[in-house]
Design brief:
Blueprint lengths: L12 H14 L11 E5 L11 H19 L3 E5 L1 E2 L4 H13 L9 H25 L10 E2 L3 H16 L12 E2 L4 E2 L29
Parallel strand pairs: 1-2, 3-4
Antiparallel strand pairs: 5-6
Length: about 210
Amino acid sequence: IYNIMELPKSYKPSEVELKWYQNWEKNNVFSQDESKNTFTIMIPPPNVTGILHLGHVLNNTIQDILIRRARLLGKNACWIPGTDHASIATEAKVVESLKEKGIDKNDISRDEFIKHAWDWKNKYGDIILEQLKKIGCSCDWDRTKFTLDETMNKSVISVFIDLFNKGLIYRGYRMVNWDPKAQTTLSDEEVNYFEKRDLLYYVKYKIEGEEGYL
């Protein structure tokens, strides 16, 4: 006598994925066994700008495949999650949010702005982490980090000071991609290039107290 189990005609993720993910978390299957060879991925953290997009889904799926393969090979696999890799995009969102409330960033103190940034992170950062769980990401969630965490913040400042003292980073006059709103420089990746035929202007400034110009 055979027991015939009827399979559903279509895959229903709500009946499958949550159950198994909760089982994985309950049994700490994403934690590490320190006695094995290590294999670590530090997740390139998504900006806390709202919700994940398709690029994040693709990126994290590839990382998940690599970390799960490492586990199957018996390695001490650790996938460390984080949110907000630079905070520039997040800052723009926070500034925009404050503007809607009638608050100018320049009228409040740094500490007040940081508080608003944390409020934004607590609202949207957790959504992003839950979305990563929804697509099955097998991160060690106990190790989750955020750009403004005290330990992370101190580490970043320490590294920048060290690099500056070694002469590896410096201030100088350079052509940069300047964001007039954020009042900061941005990566080339944030710039949209296009060619146009235009005029080349020369501007001369009168030097105060002298006959010449600059």
